[in-house]
Amino acid sequence: MLPQILLIGATGRTGRLVLDEALKRGHSVTVLVRNPNSDLPQHQNLTIVTGDPCKASDIGSALRATKSSIPIVIVSTLGQTRTSGNPWAATTSPGRFMETSIEAVISGAKSSAEPARIQKLVVMSMFGAGDSFDNLNCMMQWIMKCSNMYQTWEDHNLVDKAVRAGGLPFVMVRPGMLKDTDAIPLKFYGSDGKGSGFMPSASMRSVAGFLLDVTVDEAYDWKTPVIAN
User: Fold this and answer.
1) Which residue in 211, 140, 142 sits closest to 171, CA to CA?
2) pLDDT tens across 153-206, in order?
3) What pLDDT digit, counting tens, does each position of 93-140 carry?
4) Where is the signal peptide (predicted)?
5) Nearest of 128, 132, 138, 140 to residue 192 by alpha carbon
């Protein structure tokens, strides 16, 4: 039986790809969105819940909206945002937005009426988070520390710690630089990204597919795979 998906971040670029692919694969999907007028598809297997991804009570409401007989995998594709893709562009998200959300997700999951139905937490992280930072090239290390990317990098590191401390089975996927290209086969570089090259990138469509692959594949449970094309 395919697990149903509770998707956090469905209106983002990668999140929308995850949503579309999940529905195509036959998953039942519940999304938690702040804006009920978001441009989301109408589908018999899609349930839309309005709420704040940073509030455990709203996470609980979304979990209660899922189908009671089917196991749940929570997928989060939330990310920090800036006014443009330039590393020095102004940030438009609170400093610890992702950490606050993931802590709400963990709290909401643990306090749900049926916590045993929640099989795992799948999080879209980034190459450079946690122990993969040392394998970024020196230019990217400098950009992470000295540009407005620092807020993103720091928040991903906080998410990494919160997920590990949360106690739920997890997969934290660490893609290279996201590119809006067609899906192509992925390469895997352990948890630390060693050997991934100077500037590894990953198709958002490939990443979306892999985030769904690990909802049913246990090979990456409790791991932080670095992926790139």
Assistant:
1) 211
2) 999 999 999 999 999 999 999 999 999 999 999 999 999 999 999 999 999 999
3) 999 999 999 999 999 999 987 888 999 999 999 999 999 999 999 999
4) none
5) 132
Q: How many CB atoms lie within 10 A of CB 204?
A: 23
**Burial (CB count <10 Å: 0-12, 13-18, 19+), residue 51:** middle
- pLDDT computed for residue 36 by the predictor: 77
- Asked if 78 and 52 count as a contact pair (C-beta separation under 8 A), the reply is no
Q: Is 15 helix (H, G, I), strand (E, B) or coil?
A: helix
CB 66 within 8 A of CB 72: yes
Measure the CA dihedral 6/166/168/135, to 10°: 90
**Tens of pLDDT, residues 121-131:** 999 999 999 99
Q: Tokens representing 74? A: 């929570």
Residue with tokens 């290209």: 181
Q: Residue ranges of the alpha helices (H) in the chain?
A: 13-25, 56-64, 97-110, 138-146, 149-166, 204-216
* Coil/strand/helix, residue 65: coil
Please name each of the domains of the chain with its CATH number: 4-228 (3.40.50.720)
